[in-house]
Amino acid sequence: MHRLLRIALFTLSTFPLNSIAERPNILLIMVDDMGWSDIGCYGSEIDTPHIDQLAAEGMRFTQFYNNAKCTTTRASILTGLWPRREGDLLKTNMVTFGEVMQKAGYATGLSGKWHLGHSETTHPYKRGFQEYYGLLDGASNFFNPVQPDPDYKGGRKRTFGHNDQYIHSFPKDYYATDAFTDHAIETISNSVKENRDRPFIHHVTYNAPHYPLHAKPEDIAKYRGKYKMGWEVMRKQRYERQVEMGLIDPERYRLSGTDSDSYDWETADHDFEDHRMAVYAAMVDCVDQNIGRLLQTLKDLKVYDNTLICFLSDNGGCAEEPGGRDPALRNPGPVDDYVALGPAWGWAQNAPFRRHKSWLQEGGANTPMIAWWPGKIEADTLTETPGHIIDFMATFIDIGKATYPKKHNGEKILSLEGKSLMPIFEGNERHGHDYYAWEWSGNKAYREGDTKAVWDKITNEWELFDLSIDRTETNNLAETHPERLKQLTTSWYEWAKKTGAKTSAKKK
Asked: What is the residue-wise DSSP string for 7-28?
């Protein structure tokens, strides 16, 4: 048999008959610990032209939810399930979109932060991603990943890997954000060049702008001196831009008050605080530069117009502050320090919402989400329709003509809980989820329709909000609507029992 004929027959027998024109490539980009207002198209002063381009040519969501924490978000994105909290977050009775889409004929890859373990059953290379490179842990030095964490972070050595091999050394000019993009570009390029009829799905998971605050000097210089107005002024300016661009309605999105953990700007070291925020802005800027590289690669490969691109953050801006904020001890930017942004900037990053990462007010669990797909998603559209990260699996199955299995590796798996986003992408109504539920570190929340109940572990009480008129959770209705609050909290406990979420705080 002629060699070309043999190749053709092999291709037909290995992959579904649907052509790539019917099944788009998929690029899912996620950043780490970035606030709702940290990119230009959501009100930021940070320079993000490539992300803003995706928004201008695509769709922005105002009510798209994550799980408010790195690990649980990643598990839900991969599996299309609410997180199951007992044991490993990625279990053998779950299947990843890498496994599902690979079986449907997609080339699969993941570049960046994993944070879900690296055993035989939790390693990305063992769970459906044919090409993997990146950080297997939750955070690391951006310039020298083998450098142990400082003592105040436990002195831990972080783990990097490429496919099934561990990496123990890095070049002197290394920077993680660039390296993750390099791997994504190489993987996508090789896949397209090897077989243009085979679509790809690639998940880029930047660990920026998660601490430590590490950025290139030239990127930092761009923002030095721009943040001496302080976090409260920055927050108000972002809010005003959000209103001006039509992203939010000021009647429904009132700017929430000062976070209880925030610092007093008047007594702060203004140069140090400007420096911290400048490095953070530089990290976001660098991510955008690298997204520009990814977009150019798609153009060069001539697959740009047949690719769905989604962009989001894994949780809200971060208020954590390992090592403290003493200017005499901390130096944001270079390889030899481990500075974080802290609660004041972390709160301001999520304008106009309350709270931040690990909390379940909108500032912790609501992510900027952009979807771009030429010819499918109308340019410059804004949707108020709620969505959740568990919906990505169902969406990819929908557009990739894949099948969610009942069994995987001989084991019965949990039923898919997400719903396809395609109706939203196409401008149609979607019957979404009957509820949204969350738990992390003692914080809890449950949303049904436009009503949301939130338990804050600091106040130790349930609050109730009507998000249809109060998206920023400024008017607590718990006392005036106790029966509705009871309904929602009872439902939350039922969900917690189903998923293994912690219920340690007293039920009210």
From this structure: HHHHHHHHS-S--TTTS-EEEE
pLDDT greater than 90 at residue 174: yes
Tell me how far apart the alpha carbons of residues 377 and 412 are, in angstroms, rounded to a whole number: 36
- The span from the CA of 256 to the CA of 407, in Å, is 47
Q: Where do the domains of the chain lie, and which CATH numbers do they carry?
A: 21-433 (3.40.720.10), 434-508 (3.30.1120.10)
Q: Are strands 307-313 and 25-31 parallel, antiparallel or unpaired?
A: parallel
Q: How far is CA 364 from CA 55, 65, 122, 318, 472, in A?
A: 22, 9, 26, 9, 12
Orientation angle between helical segments 70-79 and 391-400, nearest 10 degrees:
30
Of the listed ranges 264-273, 330-339, 481-490, the least confidently predicted one is: 330-339
Per-residue pLDDT band for 330 (boundaries 50, 70, 90) equals confident
Buried b (16+ CB within 10 A) or exposed e, 268-279: beeebbbbbbbb
Give the pair of three-digit tokens for residue 502: 């912690």
Strands 381-383 and 443-448: unpaired
* Tokens, residue 152: 């105040």
Distances (CA, A) of 187 to 110, 126, 163, 307, 377: 9, 17, 12, 15, 26
Contacts 24+ apart (CB under 8 A), 247-250: 247/41, 247/42, 247/43, 247/60, 247/62, 247/382, 248/62, 248/352, 248/471
Residue 58 half-sphere exposure, CB side, CA atoms within 13 Å?
22
By C-alpha distance, which of 411, 440, 421 is closest to 504?
440
* Token pair of 59 as six digits: 């769709």
What is the DSSP-derived secondary structure letter of residue 414?
P
Closest CA to 101 of 80, 118, 71: 80
Q: How far from the centroid of its chain's Cα atoms is residue 482's Cα?
A: 34
DSSP β-bridge partners for residue 201: 26, 108
pLDDT grade, residue 381 (50/70/90)?
A: very high
> 483: which residues sit within 8 A by CB, 6+ positions away?
none
State how far the Cα of 489 lies from the Cα of 472, in Å rounded to an integer: 20
Task: Residue 363: name the closest of 448, 277, 255 by CA.
Answer: 255
Q: Could you tell me the sign of the dihedral formed by the alpha carbons of 260, 262, 263, 264, in that order?
A: negative
How is residue 403 written in tokens?
Answer: 């099948």
DSSP result, 132-193: EEEESSS---SS-TTSPPPGGGT-PPP-EEETTEEE----TT--HHHHHHHHHHHHHHHHHH
Q: Which two tokens stand for residue 317?
A: 């801006």
- Best CA proximity match to 424, nearest among 388, 452, 450: 388
CA distance 212 to 444: 28
Side chain identity, residue 357:
K
Q: Which two tokens stand for residue 316?
A: 């809200």
